[in-house]
Design a protein that fits this description.
The complex is a heterodimer of chains A (179) and B (355).
Chain A lengths: L15 E5 L9 E5 L1 H6 L11 H11 L12 H4 L11 H7 L7 H4 L1 H12 L19 H17 L3 H15 L4
Antiparallel strand pairs in A: 1-2
Helix pairs in contact in A: 6-7, 7-8
Chain B lengths: L3 H5 L15 E10 L12 H19 L5 E4 L5 H9 L5 H5 L5 E4 L5 E5 L5 E8 L3 H19 L3 E2 L3 E2 L11 E8 L1 H6 L2 H6 L6 E4 L12 E6 L7 H29 L1 H17 L5 H16 L8 H10 L2 H7 L6 H16 L8
Antiparallel strand pairs in B: 1-5, 1-8, 2-3, 3-4, 4-5, 6-7, 8-10, 9-10
Classes of the chains: A mainly alpha (179), B alpha+beta (355).
Amino acid sequence: MHSVTCQICGKRPATTHLTELDGESAAGRQELHLCATCIQRLDLKLESGPPAIATILSMKAEDVGGAKPLTLTATTEDGADERCPHCGLSFGEFGSGKLFGCPHDYTAFSVQIDLLLGRYHGTTRHIGRGPRNAPAAGDDLSSRRTLLDNALRAAVAGEHYEDAARLRDELRRLDRPGA
Amino acid sequence: MSLDDLLARPAAWLDSPGAHGGIAVSSRIRLARNLSSFAFQRKLSKVRQQELVGRLMETTARVTGWKDARQLRLGALTELERTALVERQLVSRDLANGKHPTGVFISRDEIHSLMFNEEDHVRLQVISAGLCSNANLELAVALDQALEGELGWAWHAQYGYLTACPTNVGTGLRASVMLHLPALAESGELKQVLRGLTKLHMTVRGLHGEGSEPTGHYFQISNTRALGASERAIVDQLNETVERLIAYEQLARQSLLTTQPWRLEDKVFRAWGMLTHARSLTTEELTEQLSWVRLGVALSLLEWRNWKILDRIFLQCQPAHLQLQHAEAGETEQRDRLRADLVRKWLSSPPASAN
């Protein structure tokens, strides 16, 4: 088994492992793996009883909201082992039931999701209504480019050439918004 | 809480002839929404599911302020009662058959219905008779906005509203229209017409939506793509498609009437004969024959014309509706006999009461 990566920064190896049990079922079990740097950065006082995992994760959301999604480099095959840090679903498990485990899966598996949505809907971006206070879709062009770029590379690597062509077209559209 | 008073009422979506001489029966808008603070069902413990349903029930009641709305936990209902809600198109089969904690919130007029803890946390439905997807969308959006402020929907700047299944992500919208297309089906052209829908990102289902086979020449047309087009654009495209299908059906009716009137009349009068004389009727027989009588009324082939009675038969003769309202309808055989008796009785109502 390979070493576990910190679920906050997604880079450094984790040195601290928290397990939380919720309710009577195994589905309620939640794990969180952290590295020393992130523990220090978030000022977590673990020795005096760690805060709830959800609390740590919400701190994470504010702290590194714009960071790269954790599994960005995973290809579909390798991604089967990657787990959503929030609900513990692996992309392989998603494939069997075609249902996600929690809203965070869309960030955790964004590369695979871009391919999936492109194939089913013919596009990967929402047009239409949103929550009244939410940032409008496409507000953050640079991260959008990173996402498309990574998805394109994954598509080429996986020899999904139709997907790749569509992603390339989307990237081009991004460069020329008027086109 | 007993469902008796609910079952005896007409259904919101069944007010024939609907639009275009009985062709467009009903329109439905569905929005799929999830709370950002809860995992989706497959990763949510039973305890949290209970908590979720409770919170959704409480919030919906408070936000709408609809005192006469009905709130039901499906676990507290019998299997028959749950089936009756499916027959009234107020809940999905999945919700009715689910073993996990679920709930439904139904407005008194049955136009609004919110399913809780189905595949998504909330499935908000607006359904009404005739061709009215635009108005239904406005109603759905208004309620969605009111709830959103209280509940905080799971949302992603790129993907839009997040759903358990990626086929619903984006708008979370499924807009559908139920059409009655007997002439097109009889002409043999329907299959080809419906196949063309795939290219337009539309699909066809039966009376009870997902997983149901078309019966009685009823076809539910709906969008398959929820992402990459605005709610308005999705509804516009549905309207456009539906209008074209209505025009095809009208053409097919005229064509049958001019080229082979005897064939059409034979279908209609055989059906009329069966319904006014049979001593036992299965659900399938009734649905099939009622369809031809409906067409006969629409084309004035029959002297008898009373749309309200047709709707009443359609709704009230479904298995669960019969069993819950008639003590003697427990066994299939008794039920089929009762169904035939009721149909004969209702069809003998004087034509003077025609609308």
